[in-house]
Design brief:
disordered N terminus, 14 helices, 527 residues, alpha/beta, globular, two-stranded antiparallel sheet, ten-stranded mixed beta sheet
Length: 527
């Protein structure tokens, strides 16, 4: 086909409400013994013929075994238009939905109030939902190994022992410009690139999905990771106030609600104290602390020092005496695993990038930002900051390869445009913060106060230097919630980083904790 003809065909597809149409001609359904993805394929023994058609949606059925129970589910991959009230298509949102089926092959949500539905997204801004999808809760996960035991390419997809399809249906959403999601021909992607515009778009997607799939009476949850938690806080408030959609639960993975807590700008000393416990956990993991302390003991000591001594010392600024400065530096050295001299030269203030470079400098190694268990080697060992994040480098390849394979081969959805895993095409991103730090914690507070049945689950990683756990705890403590509402907040820490599902015990632990969260968040409130 001539190039110009192909370009015209592509342009025609992009203006359709159901852009990126999957081909009508589908592959034959494999037999149960088919091993097209190897013995570890997450497609077990219930593959069915693809149901893709002119609507650009592909439907497959599979099974997965969770805690000894065989779960049959339907996976739907495709585009949902984002509509103006006039019916104009503003954008097309790629998503993958999983519905559990009963023994007769019917959705278990036939009685919708008995079956929860959870809308999941990652952050960035600019990230697709691939991480939560193929790492945390979808039926398949990337088998790439973990820190100290990484597996080489090519990687595999295996059944996910952390999946939560037994307790909730799942919809993984790729916001505009991520994944395959794009604006329509008459609109620009930049119209959706900002806190409010993005929240509006995702809220409208959820409203339309509930309407088209008759799920308004289902228990409803949203789950976000990283900047996705920022989106989730804004979204909880937006869904209630604009659409009357009251949620049962909000799941926050590696939360960032108040951006002041992670900004090392001059004069913002609170960030220094909030990162200290993560520095301590990282130093403990790499054997840079004194022997004899458990991780929990080291972190408790670090939290106590940060709260009772370190913050006081930083508050004094130049009024801090030489004796107290030396004393503070000495204790920080014990808790951070770096030299007292380095801390004195740094005026007792060490940003995450400088810490990542300094901790293992004598070994000519750096530690990761997303997960400080991972280490890397820079071309220049004398610099003051790492050249790259080794914890992102190790996941970028496996997840990109796995998603591009999974969506086309297992989900049988076809598109030739790039699947944007984590893209800078969303920038500039309007944080809607003018001469102030973005803080959406009050919006989550408002949602909880207006909806007393709303429960919140906060998952934290000890080794997360992007959104440190103590910063999330600090934000929670300052949300001005009454004790009755705080009883609806559950916090769990895991011995892993930003993406705790990379660590096998943490992934299984996260599933266990979420099963309890879904149970408790649907229980009647005691009088």
């Amino acid at each position: 086909m001539p190039l110009i003809t192909r370009l015209i065909a592509l342009a025609t597809l992009l203006i359709l409400p159901t852009t990126l149409v999957a081909q009508e001609e589908t592959r034959p359904s494999p037999e149960p013994s088919d091993t097209r993805s190897g013995d570890d394929t997450p497609a077990t023994d219930a593959d069915t013929e693809d149901d893709a058609g002119d609507d650009g949606v592909s439907v497959t059925e599979r099974t997965i075994t969770l805690d000894g129970e065989t779960i049959t589910y339907r996976a739907t991959a495709g585009m949902q238009p984002l509509l103006a009230e006039s019916g104009e298509v503003r954008a097309n949102i790629f998503h993958v939905a999983y519905e559990r089926l009963d023994a007769d092959g019917n959705p278990m949500a036939t009685t919708p109030e008995d079956r929860p539905i959870t809308f999941c997204f990652n952050g960035g801004p600019g990230s697709s939902s691939v991480w939560l999808h193929l790492g945390a809760w979808g039926p398949a996960r990337v088998d790439m190994g973990d820190a100290g035991s990484l597996k080489p390419s090519p990687w595999k997809l295996v059944p996910n022992d952390g999946a939560i399809l037994d307790v909730t249906d799942l919809v993984f959403i790729d916001p505009v410009t991520t994944g395959y999601s794009r604006s329509s021909e008459d609109h620009n992607d930049s119209e959706f690139h900002g806190l409010e515009a993005d929240a509006n778009a995702v809220a409208e997607f959820i409203r339309l999905y509930l309407t088209r799939n008759e799920r308004w009476l289902s228990p409803k949850y949203i789950a976000g990771e990283s900047y996705g938690t920022t989106r989730a806080a804004a979204l909880a408030d937006r869904l209630q106030n604009r659409h009357g959609i009251f949620l049962n639960g909000v799941i926050l993975v590696s939360a960032i609600l108040d951006f002041q807590t992670t900004d090392f700008a001059p004069g913002n000393d609170v960030a220094n104290t909030l990162f200290l416990p993560t520095y301590t956990a990282t130093a403990w993991y790499h054997g840079q602390l004194a022997d004899g302390l458990t991780l929990e003991e080291a972190v408790r000591q670090s939290e106590a020092f940060a709260r009772d001594d370190y913050l006081v010392a930083l508050y004094q600024g130049t009024e801090l005496t030489s004796e107290d400065r030396q004393k503070t530096a000495s204790r920080l050295s014990e808790l951070m695993g770096v030299s007292t001299e380095f801390l004195l030269q740094s005026n007792l203030r060490v940003s995450p990038s400088r810490f990542r470079k300094e901790l293992l400098r004598e070994q000519r190694k750096t530690v990761g930002r997303l997960d400080s268990r991972f280490t890397g080697v820079d071309p220049d060992s004398a610099g003051d900051r790492p050249w790259y994040d080794p914890s992102y480098s190790v996941i970028q390849g496996p997840y990109t390869a796995a998603m591009n394979h999974y969506v086309r081969v297992d989900l049988e959805f076809e598109s030739d445009i790039p699947y944007e895993i984590l893209t800078g095409r969303v920038r500039p991103w309007d944080m809607n913060a003018r001469n102030e730090y973005l803080d959406v914690s009050s919006r989550l507070s408002q949602a909880m106060v207006a909806n007393p049945e709303l429960h919140v689950f906060l998952a934290e990683g000890y080794y997360d230097l992007a959104t440190p756990f103590w910063a999330a705890d600090y934000t929670l403590r300052h949300m001005r919630l009454e004790p009755a509402f705080l009883q609806h907040v559950t916090t769990a820490r895991y011995e892993s980083g930003h993406m705790m599902y990379l660590h096998d015990p943490s992934r299984v632990g996260l599933r266990r904790d979420l099963l309890e969260f879904y149970r408790s968040s649907r229980a009647p409130v005691a009088e």
